[in-house]
From TrEMBL:
Listed name of the protein: F-box associated beta-propeller type 3 domain-containing protein
Domain of life: Eukaryota
Signal peptide: none
UniProt cross-references to Pfam families, sorted A to Z: FBA_3
Residue span, F-box associated beta-propeller type domain: 35-314
Species the sequence originates in: Thalictrum thalictroides (Rue-anemone)
UniProt cross-references to PANTHER family, sorted A to Z: BNAA05G37150D PROTEIN-RELATED, F-BOX ASSOCIATED DOMAIN-CONTAINING PROTEIN
Amino acid sequence: MIQHPFFSNKTRSKAPFKWAIHDCDKSILIVTAEQNGSTKTEEIEYPDTMWDFRYCNGIIGFYSIEKGSYNLCLSNITTVESIELEPPTDESTDGGHFELAFDSSSKKHKVLVWRECEDSKYYPSECYVRTLEEGTSWRPVSNVPQALRRRQHPHHERPQFCCANGALFWFIGKEHIMVSFNVAREQFRTVKLPQKLSNMVNEKEFRYSIFEFEGYLCLVEQPSSAHNKFNLEIGNLWMLKDIENNVWVTMLNNKMLPLEGTNLRNYFLEEDFPFDAIFLSQNGEILIAATDEEQKYIFSYSFLSGQFKRIEIFGELGGIHHFRVNNYVENYLSLEDFGWVF
């Protein structure tokens, strides 16, 4: 893998890392980390708690609860323009879910929404998609996979999601499959998991994460903190090289993160909840975010050197055991044509 031109190019730009960080509260931190380790932050505050937070290419989506009603909202974190999105139907946010996507071929943003009806055992129904472009409207989507239902999943078994290479992906360990939604074609399909995981997904002993790396979907298998509280380890990391033929390649095996100089190891030992590490990529490196509530760390892994570096994030975040880290993207898309500005 190191011989691939991407990994062997030693002249790749060492641009600063830049992230949008959220922790299920009312604010987002925009964090810039220079290669020398120095960081600076700026904060964007919102009037209400952001529920079911999503981020895609500089646009965030969330539910705002007002008088018991769930309202789907969008915000551009570059322009700080925010709207309540006009729903497809009057009932579409009742028992609803959504995802944000970016169509890399047309450079357009899309919003996908669906409901789960109690009288149908919470199977997905009434699915719609809309392009964030002037003159567009909601369009129905058919053949929604039943595996996308969430209400009956324990929290740690709910589908993991990611947008990569013009598609939305959901890892559904309980069903031993990956579901994808082609953003350009607006079609669902299923994707087989790596051969090692065929009928062997164990979400009690392992944690699974998906993220995008250089346009490709990656899947991480990580021993859970309940199974091994002394280390943070990447057990297996696979990349989906060919979605049409379900071709996965192995990128990493049994890679330990260096926890020396942090309080993470002691923190894992003291806490009973399953530990969540957030995986993403930027500047050709894999990034793993972790927190002990007081300090927030991002570990970067270089395929070229095979080494980890650690960045500590400073700034006030809510005192919870996980936080969401996304790559910051500057975006000037106007949202005012798609709903009510607030």
